[in-house]
Write a structure and sequence with these properties.
With 373 residues, the chain is an alpha+beta fold. It contains 15 helices and twelve strands. Helix 12 (312-323) crosses helix 14 (338-352).
Length: 373
């Protein structure tokens, strides 16, 4: 195969590697071979100055380790960090050959591997750090063929590094988004137009595992409530067809579990504005929030007790009113007279600035955190 044909094939490999990081080692090996080098490496140096060899070929692991731990700061080719992006430079651009051969870097790291020179290219420079390509040569200085090959491939390597950086940023963003969603108490399900689940947070996975109010059938969200299921399908179809009524506001769903507990769902379209950017990252047209219609009386009480200076007995009455209901039922459950409960309740109203039992329910709901503890 002629050199031009090999270069064209290698350019395709470079762009494939930008999309699949596992291909970089093989692609780097092909670059080194075509350039006539002995070894090569893709080196990333972060803003703090620490170097990481993301991919290397033709270098034994022990030498990679010693380079990172000891010799990288002594490497004359590190001066490429101050060169223009895309410019090919060799060791001779920074140091006289005879002087180079007296350095510890040459005698302890380069020479034992049979290396004499290296072509270095700064591929990318940003606030996060820099990346460079190094192709090392044995038996003499970097020659014309190596320059020719590297010159042809450098712009493609630069674009590949940019693509790789963008993909890594997207992956980081998606990972952060997934962690944020997993922290929510509400179940969050991202759905496509056919009702297939493209992402479910931990709370949603818990509900799906119970297979009561919601189930996943071959990846498609299903609810036993036929009316709710019909509303859900119509709403999802409406978001794709551009139905204004379906894309301008959330749609409510009411679900009942086998034990009689209630769940409330809100379907929010992701087909307009900034919502669409979020939806596109998950191939989703809508997000469904599901919450159990119950109050969390585990996390909020201690905070409420401290804030409103409730006594232990007043806190117990407070929680009983919220969980059980009216004064008669609370009195029976606590084994005291109704007048006693009313006395405590009056004090609770005064301390919390409320007037009705319903206000207490809203108060504790306001203190319930939205995240999973």
């Amino acid at each position: 195969m002629e050199l031009n044909d090999k270069l064209l094939s290698l350019v395709a490999d470079i762009y494939d590697a930008s999309l699949d990081d596992s291909r970089w080692t093989a692609t780097l090996g092909s670059i080194v071979d075509l350039a006539g080098g002995q070894s090569g490496g893709l080196v990333w140096i972060g803003a703090a100055g620490s170097a990481v060899i993301s991919h290397a070929v033709g270098v034994e692991p022990a030498y990679i380790k010693s380079y990172i731990e000891t010799y990288e700061p002594l490497d004359p080719s590190r001066s490429v960090l101050h060169a223009s992006v895309g410019q090919i430079q060799t060791i001779r651009d920074w140091i006289d050959v005879d002087e180079f051969r007296t350095t510890a870097f040459y005698n302890e790291w380069t020479r034992p591997q049979g290396l004499e020179d290296a072509a270095n290219i700064l591929l990318d420079k940003s606030a996060e750090g820099v990346s460079r390509l190094s192709i090392m040569k044995a038996g003499g200085p970097v020659d014309r063929r190596m320059y020719q090959v590297i010159s042809h491939l450098t712009p493609h390597m630069q674009r590949a590094m940019l693509v790789r950086q963008k993909l890594q940023q997207q992956t980081t963003l998606e990972t952060a988004s997934a962690r944020t969603l997993d922290a929510l108490r509400s179940a969050v399900l991202l759905l496509d137009a056919n009702g297939h689940i493209t992402h479910a947070n931990q709370s949603a996975r818990d509900i799906l595992d119970e297979a009561d109010v919601l189930r996943s059938v071959h990846g498609r969200l299903v609810t036993p409530d036929l009316n709710a299921d019909r509303v859900l399908r119509q709403a999802l179809a409406g978001t794709v067809l551009g139905d204004r009524a379906m894309t301008s506001a959330s749609i409510s769903l009411h679900l009942t579990a086998r034990d009689g507990s209630y769940y409330v769902g809100h379907l929010l379209p992701l087909t307009a504005g900034r919502r669409q950017m979020f939806g596109d990252s998950y191939d989703a047209c809508a997000v469904l929030f599901i919450s159990k219609a119950a109050l969390d009386t585990i996390v909020a009480p201690d905070l409420i007790r401290k804030l409103f200076k409730l006594t232990p007995t007043e806190l117990r009455v407070f929680l009983s009113i919220v969980e059980i209901g009216g004064v008669p039922d609370v009195a029976r459950s606590m084994g005291v007279a109704e007048t006693t409960i009313k006395t405590h309740l009056t004090r609770i109203f005064m301390k919390t600035g409320t007037k009705r039992q319903a206000d207490l329910v809203r108060l504790i709901a306001a203190f319930t955190p939205p995240i999973r503890i």
